[in-house]
Design a protein that fits this description.
5 helices; 0% strand; YtzH-like family protein
C-alpha cells in the first residue's frame, strides 16, 4: 500500500530530523529520501515552493549517497536541515 501525501511528508521530515539531531545517517536513509521525493514530485497538487525545497533535499540526499564521508556531509548541512524542517512544517 503506497503512502499518502501526509505520510510521505512525515517520513521525509522524520529522516531530516534524525539527521539534524544525530548529526549522522545512512546511505539507505538518503536513498529513502530520494524515493519519497520522487513520489511527492509527481503530485500535481504540491505547491511550487515545496517542490523547490524538495529539489534541494533531493540534491542533499544525492550528495550524501555519493559522499565518502556521509556523517561529515550531514554535519555540514545542519543549517539547511533546520531550514528545510521549518519550511516543511509550514506546508504540512
Amino acid at each position: 500500500m503506497p503512502l499518502d501525501y501526509h505520510h510521505q511528508v512525515a517520513l521525509l521530515k522524520d529522516i531530516l530530523s534524525d539527521h539534524q539531531t544525530d548529526c549522522c545517517g545512512t546511505i539507505a536513509e538518503c536513498e529513502q529520501l530520494e524515493r519519497v521525493i520522487k513520489s511527492l514530485m509527481t503530485n500535481s497538487n504540491i505547491d511550487q515552493n515545496l517542490k523547490n525545497i524538495l529539489q534541494q533535499i533531493y540534491q542533499y540526499s544525492q550528495s550524501g549517497v555519493n559522499s565518502s564521508g556521509l556523517n561529515q556531509h550531514i554535519q555540514s548541512s545542519q543549517q539547511n536541515l533546520t531550514q528545510w524542517i521549518h519550511e516543511i512544517d509550514t506546508f504540512s
